[in-house]
Amino acid sequence: xxxxxxxxxxxxxxxxxxxxxxxxxxxxxxxxxxxxxxxxxxxxxxxxxxxxxxxxxxxxxxxxxxxxxxxxxxxxxxxxxxxxxxxxxxxxxxxxxxxxxxxxxxxxxxxxxxxxxxxxxxxxxxxxxxxxxxxxxxxxxxxxxxxxxx
Length: 150
Fold this sequence. Notes:
There is one protein chain. By secondary structure, this protein is mainly alpha-helical. It has one domain (15-127). The chain has six helices and four strands. The termini are far apart.
């Protein structure tokens, strides 16, 4: 038997997390971390053990403390921000967002404005054809409560 449940949600707007909720960016993220690790002589297994749930600069500071973590992160994220090869829209994400008024939903995600604003806008265009842009107002920097590190 294939039972489905329906949930009625009454609210003014919905904020969605991006990765793991609307898209799967694992292939993109892994590719860039592997490239970075190879260029810097860091074993990727060390990077992958600590990268999830952390900002890039935090990960770099852990695995390569002698490097300028902020500069390294900016460089890596600049490449990641324009790479959508392997970015996968999750099942149902398009249908869900297309069923909502455009002004009544948004995307919240950890990371820097450079990477995630670009990914959010590109993703929104993939998920909701015809969307012109997203209004990006807040970034993670400066927030004291963020997603927990895994």
